[in-house]
TrEMBL record:
SUPFAM superfamilies: P-loop containing nucleoside triphosphate hydrolases. Residues 9-170 form the NadR/Ttd14 AAA domain. Gene3D superfamilies: P-loop containing nucleotide triphosphate hydrolases. It comes from the Bacteria. This is ATPase. Pfam families: AAA_28.
Amino acid sequence: MTGGKTMHVILSGCSGGGKSTLLAELARRGYATVPEPGRRIVQREQRSGGRALPWVDLAAFAREAVAMARADRAALTADAGPVFFDRGLIDAAVALEAATGAPVSETLAGDPPFHRTVFLTPPWRALFASDGERQHGFDEARAEYERLRAAFPALGYETVVLPEAGVAARADLVLEALGL
């Protein structure tokens, strides 16, 4: 906890950079976690035949991700303690800006800030793999990472780029940086 408020910490960065694996390790260690909205939206849209898929309609996908990320955050209790988000609201706002030009700052207007330290997973070719829910290639993932790497500092967040290391070492680094 910081300042008597719940600590909401973002894990962001490249698709296929190890965020979900890191989130699972933090959950294994007893921390509250929130899974990535994007994967949940893709699964739902594929089941229902929907079109809010990043490779079909990126704007609709990003709008859905913004809404889901807000709902995820609203569902948390005030005493949840540290909560780690696999992507979330800011990532969705950055995707919406890429798709429509809607400024990230306008999309986020009125939303409470997250913890000022954001952890980024950079492009890591050894981990990256396309699948039925991630249909873009490594170059697109790298471009996504560069957008996020620029967006967080522009919004006043401090970024920590996680090294190419095992999941336990990455989790240790995150927890140490946060004083947990």
